Amino acid sequence: MKTSLHFITVLIIPSFILNAQSFERMHFPDITTTLSSSRSANFIDVNNDGWDDIFFSNGLSSGEKNMLYINNTDGTFTTVTDDDIVEHNIRAVGASFADTDNDGDLDGYVVTWGSGGIAKRNYFYRNNGNGTFFFDPEVAPNPTYSETANWIDANNDQLLDLYITNSAQSLQNLYFENQGNDTFLQRTDLTITNEAKPSRSVDWVDYDNDGDNDLFITNEMNNKNTLYRNDGPNNFTQINDLTIVQDLKDSLGSSWADIDNDGDFDLLVTNWEQGNQLFINNNGVFTEMTNSAIALETVISFGSTFGDIDNDGDLDLFIGNSYSETHLNNSVFINDGNGNFTQDHTSALATQIGWTYGAAFGDYNNDGWLDIILANNQNESQVNDVYKNTGTGNNWIKIKCIGTDSNRSAIGTIVKITSVINGNTVTQTRKVEAASGYASQNSLTTHFGLGNAAEIESIEIKWPSGLIENFIGYEINKAHTITEGSGTLSIKEINDTKFRIYPNPVKDIFHIESSESGIYHLTITNTQGQTVKEIKIDGENKNHTINISSLPTGTYFYRLFETKKVISSGKIIKN
């Protein structure tokens, strides 16, 4: 199989200023000149050279080939024209890329939507190791009306599993469990495939901060959205009492991000002419921000993506709007650092005319400022867009995670960076995810704006394996690669269902509640690995009170031993 190379030059179209930084709408032959009906926008490094490449899926009703562009590392791209991943003339929608066989490269799954009552198969493309792909017809071939797909290691076996949303005639969503031998087993016996609703987007997110990935699905046609709490491998509980699953809506997309820098993931839901919704997460309880600028627009919104576009230490928001004859602009919202947003009406992103379906942030020129790609589809014939971020002044850092005991592409990893911005200690949180918004995927390299921070105080990485590592000494304004197991302090989080430790975060006192009596030994260490407290827990009492009022505020790690074996461990935040 050969790859035809068409070298692309670039012109720059001037743009507007946005909060002391700006975007330039770029002109690339092929990428921004080819008329298409695009759906997904994916910033992905398919050839492992450290530079984000670009993939667009296309969903023309009569069928259309998808598009892949290889980053030449010099500001130009190469159009791929002879490869399985761009050969099929299909009605594609969502696309999700991840290292499904842990061989060090990204494989891709592209879903399609049926026509005239006839369901169509989806397509799995395995990476040859050099950024070229071959079609594997045996992986998840079910004929469906699919919308989106998302990879995650749902059962903690180091292998990425696949969830697919369906709509129209195919109302049952699909889940495929990775068997580790290049095969996938469809599971129909799990709670997460029981519902029959017209589903759109799917997100894996640890909404309750208990160390595993829960499942959130948006549903259209006046249905409630769906949340499944992960209670252990292959054990999901549907949650019906939270605000985020109460409304009857026509929801299309969703994005999760820590917009107020408090350590948990907040939720944005895009809707069809019903107003978009922002929910603030406070320890697993959600509050809808009905007065937010985000909620005041009544538009038809699909794609959404959070990113720190001005590198000031908080996450801003882009929303792609579509299918309207009167509202032809996308929406850009700037975060003030506390989760409050102001809508931008003048930037190039906010004034572009057309319909946008999917959107993704990445840094295609590796300058530390987030660029954005837009999958457009007005009347099934519109060019796509690339906007280069030309901001200057603020600092940044990028972290690419590589799993060892976790899946190789580190999907599901949570990265936290602490720094001092404008005199305040700020901890920012990002997650590595295989899909976001609607049908799209941001770069797998996590990006953090640092404002005027002069250094990184600490980096904490929580891997899907349960390993929590801390790192220091990483330079700002650089991209770094961190491999699982290389941290200066490591602790594997173990959640034994016999024990409940609460509250967490804690002020002075927390409790250890056990379902059975016994003799245990508790140790608490600080981030330097020093033991700061040891307690012997002995007797019939199943509820134990632990006083840590003498310890300064910060992050600590606990281990609970039974006859020298660690039976429970994790992190404690003292406020």
From TrEMBL:
<protein>
    <recommendedName>
        <fullName>Por secretion system C-terminal sorting domain-containing protein</fullName>
    </recommendedName>
</protein>
<dbReference type="InterPro" id="IPR026444">
    <property type="entry name" value="Secre_tail"/>
</dbReference>
<dbReference type="InterPro" id="IPR013517">
    <property type="entry name" value="FG-GAP"/>
</dbReference>
<feature type="domain" description="ASPIC/UnbV">
    <location>
        <begin position="410"/>
        <end position="480"/>
    </location>
</feature>
<dbReference type="Pfam" id="PF18962">
    <property type="entry name" value="Por_Secre_tail"/>
</dbReference>
<dbReference type="Pfam" id="PF07593">
    <property type="entry name" value="UnbV_ASPIC"/>
</dbReference>
<dbReference type="Pfam" id="PF13517">
    <property type="entry name" value="FG-GAP_3"/>
</dbReference>
<dbReference type="InterPro" id="IPR027039">
    <property type="entry name" value="Crtac1"/>
</dbReference>
<dbReference type="InterPro" id="IPR011519">
    <property type="entry name" value="UnbV_ASPIC"/>
</dbReference>
<dbReference type="InterPro" id="IPR028994">
    <property type="entry name" value="Integrin_alpha_N"/>
</dbReference>
<keyword id="KW-0732">Signal</keyword>
<feature type="domain" description="Secretion system C-terminal sorting">
    <location>
        <begin position="501"/>
        <end position="572"/>
    </location>
</feature>
